From TrEMBL:
Protein name: 3-oxoacyl-[acyl-carrier protein] reductase
Database matches in InterPro entries: NAD(P)-bd_dom_sf, SDR_DHRS6-like, SDR_fam
Keywords: Oxidoreductase
Family: Belongs to the short-chain dehydrogenases/reductases (SDR) family.
One Pfam assignment: adh_short_C2
UniProt GO molecular function: oxidoreductase activity
């Protein structure tokens, strides 16, 4: 399967790998030669993806875990074992007005989008630091810096990811572990189609490229941040939003 061996011998854990951006990331890392540990909630989708990757010559396995549960990320880290690359792609997004967002919904956003990567990094980064190398890539969102009339809970949870990126780069960077975030704008996935429907076409026209992104485009950026070509990139938030610079007209 490998179109490149740049990540040969490296093991990558990708959360949220059974659909959308996470799936594209897992596929691309496998093409780069990485052994991939796939995480998701859908056992059937996970097993199908593993089968597809193995058929194409990759090494892959699947782990299911509920990241909204505080114990879920810890169980996932323990089962994944030693990894060289962590990609935190799993995310929850429910776009509702503030008054219609109850405490449980707010807590779910923080649990999945902020707490889960926090716990995963806490569980996996120290071993990377002991080995003197590792790359952690977080999938954020331009919602952290571009407000919309709805979705404040989601934006807050992703803003936390950007702050954590800078803290972790400082904490683990001296030990050889790099931590960076890719911050996408609107991307065409099953999830965004289900949420925005016909309004996704409106989002296509809000950036300088005049279109929404493709998951494969985000996956290429993640592979760059995960690999040796970005060895001097640490603590960065890389915006991949086609030049989005205004309030999102959701």
């Amino acid at each position: 399967m490998s179109s490149s061996s740049v990540l040969q011998g490296r093991t990558a854990l990708v959360t949220g790998a059974t659909s959308g951006i996470g799936k594209a990331i897992a596929q691309n890392l496998a093409r780069q030669g990485a052994m991939v540990v796939l995480h998701g909630r859908d056992q059937s989708r996970g097993e199908t993806l593993v089968k597809d990757l193995v058929t194409q010559g990759a090494t892959a396995r699947f782990i299911t875990a509920d990241l909204s549960d505080a114990e879920g990320p810890l169980r996932l880290a323990a089962e994944a074992g030693s990894v060289d690359i962590l990609v935190s792609s799993a995310g929850l997004y429910e776009f509702t007005p503030t008054a219609a967002t109850d405490a449980a919904s707010f807590d779910r956003h923080i649990a999945v989008n902020t707490r889960a990567p926090f716990l995963l990094v806490g569980a996996l980064a120290p071993a990377m630091a002991e080995r003197g190398q590792g790359s952690i890539v977080l999938v954020g969102s331009n919602a952290a810096r571009l407000p919309a009339p709805i979705g404040a809970a989601y934006g807050a949870s992703k803003a936390g990811v950007e702050i954590l990126t800078r803290y972790w780069a400082t904490e683990f960077g001296p030990s050889g572990v790099r931590v960076n975030t890719v911050s996408p704008g609107p991307v065409h996935t099953e999830g965004t189609q289900a949420i925005f429907g016909e309004h996704l076409a409106v989002l296509d026209s809000t950036n300088a490229r005049g279109r929404a992104g493709d998951p494969a485009e985000i996956a290429e950026i993640v592979s760059f941040l995960a690999g040796p070509a970005s060895s001097y990139v640490n603590g960065a938030v890389l915006f991949a939003d086609g030049g989005e610079r205004s309030v999102l007209p959701v």
